[in-house]
Amino acid sequence: MKVNQFPDRIIEINQEPYLYFGGTAYLGLSTNSDFQQLVIKNMLKWGTTYGSSRNANVKLTAYDNGETFLAGHIKAEAAVTVSSGMLAGKIVIDELNKETDCYFHFPNAHPAIKTHNSLPVIIDAKINPRLLDKTPERITILTDAVPADQTKAIDLSILKEIPNHKEITLLIDESHSLGILGENGCGIYAEIQLPIKRKIMVASLGKAFGLTGGVIASDLSFINQIKKTDTFISAAGMNPAFVQTLADASEIYPKQHQKLLENLSYIDTKLIKNENIKFDKNYPLLYIEIESITEILKKNKIIIANFKYQENTKDINRIVITANHLKEDLDKMIQVLNDYNSDCT
């Protein structure tokens, strides 16, 4: 289906209003008037785009402002922005290729951080024995903060089993946890305390943070490495008006985050839980294992996300909660799910 306006909590299909529980605008910023005014103000100051290299002799303070905010928010030593979350992942992988002997991945890692020669961390519910052998080597672990079709942060405790003659770098994609999990939506980067050489976080800023672009966060040494890569030097940066908005919106993000948490807590008190519905009160996605759920909800004037996450996988039915949803929106969605569950018992 195609719509001719931004799909916020309500969209129109054939001139009929439907509740919308899809997309990735978790903090509801794309239609937030205060946020929009900051974007407009910064576009008037910084223009609609800036096509120069970040390493050119003329440097824009917007990047310093936004990246300082991101580093502080994520609780990392340093952060740098790029034009997309996908580029953030690819540029990091390119750099890690120079210092990685073997890659390992947790299931369902996003394509942004995939590499063709990676091995699974877990085989038959146990750690890959290749990670426990006696060979000293530099390894990189690839994972999403919250794996696709899950509602809780990845459990990384299994990495403690890896012997210390393996030098570990952890690359984690926080596109669907930055702005959501952690204190004020800082993500899970700061919480990761493992005996590893380095942790690196990448994320799209086009999800919860409402701005087209990507971020890489890590220790200062690694971020400086990224800034020296051919890809970073050759590519235009993230829109400077958007990067400045990151800093200027520092008081809006926690307010929207609190609204999101209140919506999730409300759902938790009213939704009937069973094995067909995967939900956690700290995460804004509900995964529904009910046949024809999209049609059932559509008959009740509700549209949810339905798509294949990756090729050759089954369709995902995902209900997305945002900070903009009203209690009456949530009540209607909950009622449909609860009625279905009652009919099945």
Summary keywords:
345 residues; alpha/beta; seven-stranded mixed β-sheet; six-stranded mixed β-sheet; 9 helices; 30% helix; globular
Could you explain the architecture of this structure?
The structure is a single chain. It is built from nine helices and 15 strands. The model has no long low-confidence stretch (mean pLDDT 94). A seven-stranded mixed beta sheet has the order 3-11-10-9-8-4-5, sandwiched between helices. The chain is of the alpha/beta class and 345 residues long. The chain is 30% helix and 21% strand. It has helices spanning 33-46, 61-74, 85-96, 220-227, 230-234, 240-248, 252-270, 293-299, 327-343, and strands spanning 10-13, 16-21, 78-82, 102-105, 119-120, 122-123, 126-127, 137-144, 166-173, 198-204, 214-218, 277-278, 285-288, 302-308, 315-320.
Please mark out the parts with pLDDT under 50 across 5 or more consecutive residues, or reply none: none
- Structural class designation: alpha/beta
Order of helices and strands: EEHHEHEEEEEEEEHHHHEEHEEH
Described by the principal axes of the CA atoms, the overall outline is globular
Relative helix content: 25-40%
Number of strands: 15
Please report the distance between the alpha carbons of the first and last residues. 33 Å
- Widest sheet, order of strands: 3-11-10-9-8-4-5
CA radius of gyration is: 21 Å
Output the number of helix runs. Answer: 9
Task: Give the strand content.
Answer: 15-25%
Q: Mean pLDDT, as a whole number?
A: 94
Largest pleated sheet: 7 strands, mixed
